Amino acid sequence: MNISTVLMLIIAVFASVIFPAQIHALAPDQVFDKVKDSIVVVKSMDSKGKLKEQGSGVLLASGRVATNCHVIEGGTSYKVMQGMQVSSAILYAGDRDKDICLLDASNITGKPVQIGTTKSLKVGAKVYAVGAPRGLELSLSDGIISQLRGGLPPMIQTTAAISPGSSGGGLFDDEGRLIGLTSLYMKGGQNLNFAMPVEWISKVKPGPGNGVSEPNQTGWLQPALAYEKSENWKGSLDWCEKWVKSEPKNAMAWLRLGSAYLGLGRYTDSVNALRQAQSLNPNVAETWNKLGAAYVRLNRYNYAVDAYRNALKIDTQSAETWGKLGAVYVRLNRYDAAEDACRQGLRIDPKRVSLWALLGNSYTRLTRYQDAVDAYRQALRLDPAFVNAWAGLVVTYHESGNQAAALDTVEELRRLDPKWADELYRMIVPR
């Protein structure tokens, strides 16, 4: 290698340090194509399901949606729309002072936005606002940063137009990275549009006290119940762990945590959480009921009996709990006790089909076959399509020696469930 070549290499290395390669900005249509699947429509409804407010939102990598709190304020339920997708959403976290709220909309499958930063922003830099004004198709407006206001990170003032309904949408740099949430515009004030810095999103924490109106519900309880209703047990666990950490002496927090563990199949953890709830407040029937369910999953049936009995001390008129207790007695081969539990439940709710079927099961185990037939027939009078009652009737006839009635009942069952009928036929007809 000669001297000239060495010098050229040195100059090349020197230049790469002092003059780094320029990053090429995207064209407006390229920015839009990059971010369009990250923008959603956010709707806030009142208790009657009537639309209160509508705005935009941005899909984050966490699967949550960032929007403005003023878009959802006063709502009791929320929806998120992305293209043809529509998902119910719950309020996960919010900071009213920063006007940033996070919604959990687990069914939305758009493309998470790429997060940028405000650290290197300069006045005069090109930016793009993308939102869904008035719930219409996504629109893009371009402009520049006209001012950076406040501290670090700063609120962004931009000339990019923000229309009604675009609040909560994204403000992007010329590489399609999110730098802020478009939040407000000044009526009659040309070019006075503002966006909240992207760094604020990560500062928003879950829990009550965020300044967002949530009528008739606590800030913690409403999302916890919404997670359970949608059977989003992972989201429920995440939320309730934060709730318990925030309010460790709150029995309801531990109850909802135990419910989340139960939904996830983590039964020992569920027992521990529910025991904590019970120690803080032993007078909640739901705690004992869920504790009983967790013990059943762990095959700890005597403990389950105690839990259901405690639930019935608090709510003696729960036919459902009497049925659960009866089912545990059957597992323990305590058929007389199961009969008594079923009778107690049917006294409260004589039309509960599952209790009649369970009573029939108990009578069959007690070899009281005619009583069993009567119980199963009563269940089928209430619900002729209740397959379990038909199956129980087949078994009862077979065990009582009435093979003709068993075969006739199999054929009746075949109309509802051919596979189950075939299984029973193979069981009662010897090869």
Q: What fold name stands as the CATH topology of the largest domain?
A: Thrombin, subunit H
User: What's the tally of helices?
Assistant: 16
Chain oligomer state: single chain
Give the overall silhouette.
elongated
Can you give keywords for this protein?
12 strands, elongated, 18% strand, 3 domains, Thrombin, subunit H, 431 residues, six-stranded antiparallel barrel, Serine Threonine Protein Phosphatase 5, Tetratricopeptide repeat, six-stranded antiparallel beta barrel
Describe the structure in brief.
The chain has 431 residues and is an alpha+beta fold. It folds into three domains: 22-215, Beta Barrel (Thrombin, subunit H); 217-315, Serine Threonine Protein Phosphatase 5, Tetratricopeptide repeat (Alpha Horseshoe), CATH 1.25.40; 350-431, Serine Threonine Protein Phosphatase 5, Tetratricopeptide repeat (Alpha Horseshoe).
Structure description:
By secondary structure, this protein is of the alpha+beta class. It folds into three domains: 194 residues, Thrombin, subunit H (Beta Barrel), CATH 2.40.10; 99 residues, Serine Threonine Protein Phosphatase 5, Tetratricopeptide repeat; 82 residues, Tetratricopeptide repeat domain (Serine Threonine Protein Phosphatase 5, Tetratricopeptide repeat), CATH 1.25.40. Helix content is 45%, strand content 18%. The chain contains 16 helices and twelve strands. The strands form two sheets. It has a six-stranded antiparallel beta barrel. It has a six-stranded antiparallel β-barrel with strand order 7-8-9-12-11-10. Strand 7 and strand 8 form a beta hairpin. Helix 5 packs antiparallel against helix 6. The longest helix has 16 residues. It is elongated. The N terminus is likely disordered.
